[in-house]
Amino acid sequence: MGQPASATVARVRRHLQLALGCVWLLDAALQFQPYMFSRSFSTDTLAPTAQGNPGWVATPINWATALVSHHPVPWNFAFAITQLGLALGLFWPRTVRATLIASIPWSLGVWWVGEGLGGNLTGAASPLTGAPGAVVIYALLAVLLWPRPSPSRCRSVADASPLGRAGSRVLWLVLWGGLAYEMLLPANRSATGTLASIAGMARGEPAWLATIDRRTVAALGPHSAATAAVVAGILAATALAVCGPTTLKRAWLLLAMVFAATVWVVGEDLGGLLTGTATDPNSGPLLVLLAAAYWPVRLSRRENALHGLPARPALPVLPAGAIR
Question: 42 and 69 in contact (C-beta within 8 Å)?
C-alpha cells in the first residue's frame, strides 16, 4: 500500500481540476453561439480540417461533416450539452473520476473530427497557431489530474498521476519535443509559411488584435527562418525542463507558461473567442494548465517528515540580551 498523495499536491490537483472544468464550461458556452447551429459550422469549421490529412483521417471527418450539416441544430445541441456535463462533473468532487474518464474519448474524438488531429499529419502544423491541437491536451490533463494515492513521495501533480514520475516526464518530453520538431518543418522554416498563418488569423478579429498580428508579421518578416530556429530551440529546451533540478525546473516551466500565453495572444488571437465562431480557446491556456501540473510544490514540514525529507532549518533562537 502506498502512502496517500500529500495534502498540498491533492489541493493543487483539485484547483487544476476546477480550472479544467472552467475551460469545459467555456467550450460549452461557445458551442451555444448562433453560428454553431447553422450549416456553416460543418462546412466552414469541420470540413476544412480534412484538408491535407491522409485519407484514413479525412474520411471520418467528411462523414461527420455531412452528418452534422443535415441536422445542425440537434447535433450541436448534443455537443454543447456534453461539454456542459463535463464541466459540471468536474465541479462536483464525487463525479470527478467518472468525468475525467468520459472526457478522454470525447476529447480524442473531437481532436480527430473537429481538429483533424491538430493538423499534425499535414506537414503544416505550427506551435505558433495551435499545434498540437487544443482538445488532445484535455485528454492529457484528464490523465495527469486523476485523483489517486501515490505509491511514492510526489512533488507535483504530474508525479502523483497514474503515469508516475517517469511516465509523466516522457509525456512532457514527447509533447514539447514534438512541438520543437514541427517548428522546424519546411512549411514553418520558409520565408512566408509561419508569417502567412499568423496573418491569416487576423481575419474576423477586432482591429486592435489584427493590428498586433500585422505588426508581428512586419517585424519578423525579414527573419522568418531565424525566428523558427529560435522558437524551436526554446521548445526543445522546455522539453528538458522536467529533467533538471527543482529551481531550474520552475524557471523553465514558467518560460513554458509565458510562451503559451504569448502565442495565445499573437499567433492564436485569443483562440478566436472574439469572432463568434470559436469552439475552444485553442492550445495556449491548456498548455499553461499542463505546465502547472508539473510545477514542483512546496510540501509542509509534516509532509517532509512523513516522506523522510529534511525539513527547512528553523531560525536559531537567540538568548535574551544577545542582540544589542
Answer: yes
